[in-house]
Amino acid sequence: MTATTEATAAASMPSAETLGAVLTREERPRRPSALAASLTFGWRAMLKIKHVPEQLFDVTAFPIIMTLMFTYLFGGALAGSTRDYLQFLLPGIMVTSVVMITMYTGVGLNTDIEKGVFDRFRTLPVWRPAALVGMILGDVLRYVLAATTIMLVGLILGFRPAGGVLGVLAGIGLLVLFSFAFSWIWTMFGLFLRSEKSVMGVSMLVLFPLTFLSNVFVDPGTMPGWLQAFVKVNPITHVVAAVRSLMAGDRNTTETIWVLAASAVLVLIFGPLTMRLYNRK
Amino acid sequence: MSAPAIETNGLVKTFKDNRAVDGVDLTVPPGTVYGLLGPNGAGKTTVVRMLATLLRPDGGEARVFGHDVVREADTVRSRVSLTGQYASVDEDLTGTENLVLLARLLGHGKRAARDRAAQLLEAFGLTEAAARQVKKYSGGMRRRIDIAASILNTPDLLFLDEPTTGLDPRSRNQVWDIIRVVVAHGTTVLLTTQYLDEADRLAGRIAVIDHGRVIAEGTPGSLKASIGSGTVHVRLRDGAQRPEAVRLLAAVLGTDVQTEADPVALTARAGVEGSDRGAAEQASRALAALAEAGIVVDDFSLGQPSLDEVFLALTDRPIPEEVPA
Ligand SMILES: Nc1ncnc2c1ncn2[C@@H]1O[C@H](COP(=O)(O)OP(=O)(O)O)[C@@H](O)[C@H]1O
Ligand SMILES: [Mg+2]
C-alpha cells in the first residue's frame, strides 16, 4: 500500500483503446457442467491451502497426537500390550480423527461466506451448489491426508492390517466418503450460526459423544445395557465396524452397505437444507 | 422494442422492522450509466443486491432486461456482473488465480482462461502484480482487479457499488475512465455513490435515495437546476458584518443564505433554475457586491454542491446522523 507501488501501477494503467479491446462481445463459452464447476471450486480450495499451508497442521498434528495418546494411554490396561491394542484401535482412531476434522468445514465456511467474494460466486450463472461442493471436495483432500498420516503412524507403531493394501485403501475410501457426507451437517451449521465460535461449540457438542460413546476405544460388550443401546445406533460405531472389517480383510458387507446408505441419507437431508440457507444468505 | 436494463416497481426490503428499501421505482435505459446517489444507510447496496439476485425482495418486483430477478434469476445472472462495495475477489489468491478461477467458472477452457486473465491484467495495468496475493494490493489496484473480474465476459449490465469510496484522486480517475470505456462498449452501468460530483460526471440519469425511497430523479442537469449547480462558501473578516453580507448575497444569488455556527461563515447555493446566469458568474458578482459594500472577505470558494447540500435542498433537512448500532 505504499505510495510508490500505487504510482507505478497508475503509470502503467493503459489507454482507453487497450481497455476497449478486451471488452469483447464474442460468443460466450457454454456454462460449465455441475461437475466441472464443483471441481473448479475444489481447485480454489487447493489454492487456499497452497497460500496458507499452516491450515494443514490441524489435519496432521492432531491425528498423530490422538493416535499416540490413546495407544499408550489405554493399550496396557485394555489389551495387555500397546501393540495388541493398536490392532483394535487404529481403524477407530482414524475414524474419530477424520470425523472430528470435518467440523473445520463448517468453521471455514462460516468465515469464508462473510467475505464479498461469495457475493460474486452467487451471481455467477453456474450450478448453485458448486461453491459448497467444491469447498467440501477441498476438505476431502484434508481427510485423505489425515487418514494417510494416521495409517503411517500406525504402521510405524506396529499396526499390521490383515486386509493388506487393498483392505486399507477400501477402508480409507469408505471413511472419506462418509466424511464427505457428514460434512454437509457442518456446512448447514456454518451457514446457520452467527460466529465461528458457535460453529465450533456445536460441533464439539455433537462430536464428543458420538466418537467416545462408540466402539472406538473398547468393546461395547463391556458397557451397561442402556449405553450399549446408544452405541448400537451411533453411526460412528457402524463406520468403525465397517472400516475395521475392511482393513482386517473379512469384508463385512452389511456394515459397509449401512455406511453407504447413511452417507446417502446425510447428503439427501443436509444438502438441500444447506442450499436453502445458502440461497437465503 | 427493447426492455429497460432495469425496471423496478414498488421494490421493498425489510430487515426486522427496518424498511431498508421502501417502495423504489426505477427505470434504467440500456447503454447508459445510471447513478444511485445517497448517504450511508440509504439503501443503495440493498437495492443492488436485490437486482443482482443476492437478496429476495419482500415486496414489489424487479426486472433486468425484462427478466424477473426472482423467477428468472439464472437468466439474470447470465447477463449481469457485480462489483460489490467490499472486495468481491478472493484476497488469499493472486490476481491471476482470481481471474482464471472466474473465467473457468464462466466456462472458458484452461488455456482460454489463462489467456483471458493475462489480457485483462494487462489492460488494467496489473501485469506486474499478477502473481501477488490480492490482499497485498493497494486500494486502487483492488478496485481494478475487482472490475476486471466483472468484465471477464462483457456483461450487459454491470453493478458498481461505491467503486470509488476510499480511493485517492488518481485511482478514482482511473475507475472513472474504466467506467466510461465500459459504457462506450454498450454495457449498462448501475453506479452507486455518495458523491454528487461523481454521479454528475458519469451518469446520464441520477436517482437520489434516502431512507429507502427515491426522493428525486432526473438528469444531472435537471437535478442541479433544482438544487443549484454550485455552492458559494464565504468567510468574513468581521462577524459583525454578516447580516449585511447575508442580505447582499441573497439579493445577487436569488437563493437562501445559510449562516453557519462559525460567526464569520456563510454558505449559499448559486446557479439555481430561473436565474439567467451561471453559478460562476453569479459568484463573481456576489464577490464584487461584497467588496463594494466594504465587507472584507477572508476566504471565498465556489464548489459543487456536496451531498449534504443536495439533501438540504431536497429534504430541507441535513443528512441524518448515523445512529450508532
Ligand atoms: N443484512 C442486513 N441485515 C440487517 N440490516 C441491514 C442489512 N443490510 C443492510 N441493512 C440496513 O439497511 C439499511 C440500508 O443499508 P444499505 O443498503 O447497506 O445502505 P447503503 O448501501 O446506501 O449504505 C441500513 O439501515 C442498514 O443498517
Ligand atoms: Mg452500501
Could you explain how this protein is built, in words?
The complex is a heterodimer of chains A (281) and B (325). Chain A has 281 residues and is mainly alpha-helical. Chain A has one domain (33-280). Chain A is built from 13 helices and no strands. In chain A, helix 5 (82-101) runs antiparallel to helix 10, helix 5 (82-101) crosses helix 12 (235-248) and helix 9 (164-192) packs parallel to helix 13 (253-280). The relative contact order of chain A is 0.12. By secondary structure, chain B is of the alpha/beta class. Chain B is 36% helix and 26% strand. Chain B folds into two domains: 6-224, Rossmann fold (3-Layer(aba) Sandwich), CATH 3.40.50.300; 228-304, Reverse transcriptase/Diguanylate cyclase domain (Alpha-Beta Plaits), CATH 3.30.70.270. The mean pLDDT of chain B is 89. Chain B has a six-stranded mixed β-sheet, sandwiched between helices. A four-stranded antiparallel β-sheet of chain B has the order 2-1-4-5. At the A-B interface, helix 1, helix 2, helix 3 and helix 7 of A face strand 6, helix 3, helix 4, helix 5 and helix 6 of B. The complex binds adenosine-5'-diphosphate and magnesium ion. Adenosine-5'-diphosphate binds at residues 15, 18, 20, 38, 40-46 of chain B.
Count of DSSP helices of chain B? 11
Major sheet size, sense and barrel closure of chain B: 6 strands, mixed
Mean pLDDT of chain B: 89
How large a portion of the residues of chain B is in β-strands, by DSSP E? 25-35%
Q: CATH superfamily of the largest domain in chain B, please?
A: P-loop containing nucleotide triphosphate hydrolases
- Stretches with pLDDT under 50, minimum 5 residues of chain B: none
Structural domain count of chain A: 1
Short description:
The complex is a heterodimer of chains A (281) and B (325). In chain A, helix 4 crosses helix 8 and helix 5 packs across helix 12 (235-248). Chain A has 281 residues and is mainly alpha-helical.
